[in-house]
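Q: Structure tokens for this one, please.
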Amino acid sequence: MEMRKDFLWGGATAANQYEGGYQEGGRGLSVNDVEMGARHGVQREIHDSIHPDAYYPSHVAVDFYHHYKEDIALFAEMGFKCFRFSISWSRIFPNGDEETPNAEGLKFYDDVLSELEKYGIEPVITINHYEMPLGLVKKYGAWRNRRLIDFFVRYCEAIFTHYKGRVHYWLTFNEINALMLSARPWHQAGIIYEDREDRNQVMINAAHYQLVASAKAVVLGHEIDPSNQIGCMLLYPLCYAATCRPGDQILAMKKLNKTYYFGDVHCRGYYTNTCTSIQKALGAVPFMEPGDEEILRKGTVDFVAFSYYFSAIEGENTETTEGNLVSGGKNPYLPATDWGWQIDAVGLRTSLNYLYDRYQKPLFIVENGMGAIDTLEPDGSIQDDYRIDYLKNHILAMMDAIEIDDVDVIGYTPWGCIDLVSAGTGEMRKRYGFIYVDKDDEGKGTLERKKKKSFDWYKNVIASNGNCLKGV
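A: Here is the predicted structure, written as tokens:
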């Protein structure tokens, strides 16, 4: 298999980390708008309302709301074929349960799409990227409540209808499996566990409601526009067994199965034995209603999108390392970033093979990247060779999966193509982008955009369809 001529090279962002404009255009509060950023050694805190003396990174983020024309022009200069971004649910339905969408919110994304169309950049839209209206948390308990299925489907109907013919690639829930992998269900489902509730049952129900909501969205999206391609999005923390000890193999299998729990339902349309074994282990089964099984069967996805940043090991007595909302064992054969994320380019090739072997659906790498502290040189340049090295090795691994292993990959959008707020910590100093944004962890800065060394490097990668990395 060769690299597709129409391969979707681009970059990825999320509204809650990038967009800003949190009180503009009739937008309501989201779960991110009440979460403080980490600074001066203070950990992130979640509030039930806005505190006037607290700093909330999402309120301004890096202000795409007012800089979208400038940013998209820079993406076009790099040669982007696509741009992955998310729609802020609370910009369309401020409280989440309104009957009709907010016209000003729809208009903002109309303007963004017009700018993308100007440069021939394909939009790839995440419908729910770690963001939901705060009103749904306060009034309904977030994804604890089955009623959120209807509110989500209403939201999907509004955007599928309004942007019909302008958007062809959609992702339903960002990293949906983070609900099971992460100790912070607030990000993914708007849930803070209460002391006396059965956490496993709440989690299994919330997962089921989201899976049903996603399936309904797929069916609806295809009915509204048969050309729509609708995918799921998984966090894929590749896991190796720490040793050849058989017990370590089982531990690694169980870690990966928490991801396959969601992938199986999205792709196969039912709870597989992998899923039911996890339910047994947790002592919880989803509250099913008549019709749920049928909608899951009908609403299977067209492709599988996933994030890949690192790998980890599972075994007895392993040293813990950090990662994207999840942790794992430290692999002695791998280097790590400043944040302890282990760098494993070969693991991306392995992940692509695992996912394609299991689902036989096109794959889309919609997040991959390296958070680092970038330094402005005296001449104003940013010499981010470490980022170039990371991305080069991962892209080459992806190309090996395509060209040697015959894995069907449709696109690659590295995370944070422009600097934005970290989802995990609320920091700005943890930078991923090809474009530097002048803002610090306290929210200070001019928001001026500057090209990093990696900007022109990625431009050449796209222009050559990756061949420049192989000396072609």
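A few notes: The mean pLDDT is 94. The chain has one domain: 8-470.
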